[in-house]
Design a protein that fits this description.
The protein is α+β, with helices and mostly antiparallel strands and 304 residues long. The chain is 16% helix and 18% strand. Strands 2-3-6-14 form a four-stranded antiparallel sheet, with no helix packed on it. Strands 12-11-10-13 form a four-stranded mixed sheet. A two-stranded antiparallel ribbon has the order 1-9.
């Protein structure tokens, strides 16, 4: 337990970097290119979208090898159309009596909006994301937060699913868009596109997108695969271990990430992120035990 608490304290300090100025500027891409090899017909079943098999260029035109451009081929797979909600996670807990990491250690991590710093808050859990005075009542269809990588994996297994790989996540976010930063075919931002922080941080969120904090899943325009919130709302856990140089040695066919590591990958940005953090190619490392009020997930499943 002492080791776990030490990890959380260290990561709490490190993860502040995720809010978030970013390591590099978004790549310059004035126009979108849409792959003709992708099947435009959308197949949906039980809240999941079938992402067709295909090839894409993963990463970005950056100086850093962390985002090295490289080709990836993926088999078809299913992905949740929307992020997992409080309502869905509550059903999981009711049936399994599962206790999340935050419930086990007795606290979660919450952004102090006055200081712009992360702080440990006793009693902050998925049921009370900002602490004992908060609630998910009336927010049942918002994405569940205060869940660790282990919590997300446990839910996915209960549903007969899994977490998406990092390559699957980016492929699904792009949905055929090549050379773009965001999951929409334009370099301009429109308020209907995503839920993220507008305005000086940690001052006042100007709420140009209509929300402070998380939004009901599916509140913003979907991408070409009919997937919602692939940018903003909450960061999403991926299955992969994180390695900054993994792209230099990654397999071309269905890459699964490194075989070991200390951190897992999160993708997509959140309600607390700046615009450049929503770029589809951005990748961040986070200790798998860590949880806070801006990290959630969605599930994937193999296509037989």
């Amino acid at each position: 337990m002492k080791n776990l608490l030490a990890i959380l304290v260290v990561v709490g300090a490190c993860v502040a970097a995720i809010r978030f100025v970013g390591e590099a500027r978004p790549s310059k891409s004035p126009t979108a290119s849409i792959s003709d090899s992708l099947d435009p017909r959308i197949v949906m079943e039980d809240g999941m979208v079938l992402c067709p098999a295909g090839e894409f260029i993963m990463g970005a035109d950056q100086a850093s090898s962390e985002h090295l451009l490289h080709q990836v081929r993926l088999a078809s797979f299913w992905l949740d159309q929307r992020e997992v909600t409080n309502r869905q996670f509550r059903a999981f807990v009711a049936e399994t009596k599962y206790q999340t990491q935050a419930e086990q250690v007795g606290y979660g991590t919450v952004m102090d909006m006055r200081r712009g710093e992360w702080q440990k808050v006793e009693g902050a859990t998925w049921r009370q994301p900002q602490g004992p005075e908060s609630t998910i009542i009336g927010r049942e269809d918002h994405p569940v937060v205060q869940v660790s990588w282990f919590d997300a994996r446990a839910y996915a297994q209960w549903r007969g699913k899994r977490l998406p790989t990092e390559a699957e996540w980016e492929y699904a976010a792009r949905a055929g868009l090549s050379g773009m930063d965001y999951p929409w075919p334009t370099s301009a931002f429109e308020p209907a596109r995503a839920n993220f922080w507008q305005g000086p941080f940690p001052g006042v969120d100007q709420k140009q997108d209509g929300y402070r904090g998380t939004a009901t899943v599916g509140s913003f325009a979907s991408n070409r695969f009919e997937l919602s919130d692939m940018a903003g709302n909450v960061w999403e856990w991926c299955a992969d271990w994180y390695s900054a140089d993994y792209y230099e040695r990654a397999k071309t066919e269905n890459p699964l990430g490194p075989t070991q590591g200390k951190h897992r990958v999160i993708r997509g940005g959140s309600w607390l992120s700046s615009l450049d953090q929503l770029a589809m190619w951005r990748r961040h490392a986070l200790a798998p035990h860590f949880c806070n009020d801006q990290i959630g997930f969605r599930c994937a499943k193999n296509q037989p």
